[in-house]
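Minutes, project huddle
Topic: does the predicted pose make sense with tryptophanyl-5'AMP bound?
PN asked that the exact inputs be recorded in the minutes so nobody has to dig through chat later. Recorded below.
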Amino acid sequence: MANGMQGRRKYTLSGFACSGLRPSTSLIEDNMNSFKPLVFSGVQPTGNLHLGNYLGAIRKFVALQQNNDCIYCVVDLHAITAQLVHDDLRGQIRSIAAAFIASGIDPNKHIVFNQSAVPQHAELAWVFNCVARIGWMNRMTQFKDKAGKDRENASLGLLAYPSLMAADILVYRATHVPVGDDQKQHLELARDIAQKFNIDFQEKIRAAGTGVDMVVGEEPIHGFFPLVEPLIEGPAPRVMSLRDGTKKMSKSDPSDLSRINLMDDADEILKKIRKAKTDPEGLPSDVEGLKGRPEADNLVGIYAALAEKSKADVLSEFGGQQFSVFKPALADLAVHVLAPITSEMRRLMDDTSHIDAILKDGGERARARAEAVMNDVFDIVGFLR
Ligand code: TYM
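Predicted holo structure (tokens), as shared on screen:
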């Protein structure tokens, strides 16, 4: 039990190997039970992984593993929310796992697994479906975008998607979640769900002899789930389409020219960058000059992220140049960074038994952790076992 609020401290995550990856802080009581920093994130096995997934998420996963305990998940249960039947879901699952490993994630030191191997995700999601309010779900911009005009016809799973996403994280009581900018609203909802659970079950959590004293705002409470910290900052939190600098680069864009896929070869990358939309001006010499030029801003941002430089540094090198000079340099850099990952992915995909063994082992280790958390949840909620 905490010694009053004296032990309160800022909660920090160590080991950001990438500059610019700084977690915001939350106040969590420093006592024997306090939440241990744990990184969790997931990627859906729907379509080709692209440069946005790599720069916005996977590269952060790799950086974070240096000094933190990390769990990285191929979220296959999420894959059937928007499209029920897939031609080759298993192949897609394996290719995301291959991308994780080819990018440098160590599945022995950390955990790499697919979500459906751990039934506790779906169990906790059910409890969270009863915690979350329909109004919260209806406000999700991704739900509105994906459901489109015909909302009545969207699957119930698509509406409940953020509740499963909260369960993915909280079934491990993970504290930090590296994602691209488009997932921010979902993570705010995960915090709302954790907070409502903690407050509604406060007495039960105490009675079950679990949980930690924590401070939410100014309010001291005895809670079970951490309020997750999104890790969104980084070199490229939102990579835009190569065909339209106002639209996010996305797996579901019908035009393959809009994105660079991790499996693209050098010729494809060159072609896509050559055809990338630009405006008639040359490159400005400072970042201010990118304002109102979304396509130029995006290409400079991609170059900066790939080169691990600032946009200002890129412009000090290329300012005043035409895109006919900049685009080939960008293509060369993209090939230089992506080619080793692509070839390692291909090698891994040739031996699916190796990937399957990694996922199986990761699933077993994840399940052991999730089971322990769900045992407490059963006690707190009052289910009889
Ligand atoms: P998903 O599969 O759509 O995308 C995987 C990751 O890539 C990031 N991302 C981008 N980053 C920068 N620019 C882009 N254009 C871009 N496009 C995608 C996403 O932000 C994400 O980090 N709901 C999640 C999967 C998920 C999850 C979770 C994530 C399920 N459960 C729990 C974290 C924690 C999704 O659909 O990501």
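Observations noted during the meeting:
- The longest strand covers residues 39-43.
- The mean pLDDT is 91.
No decisions taken; revisit at the next huddle.
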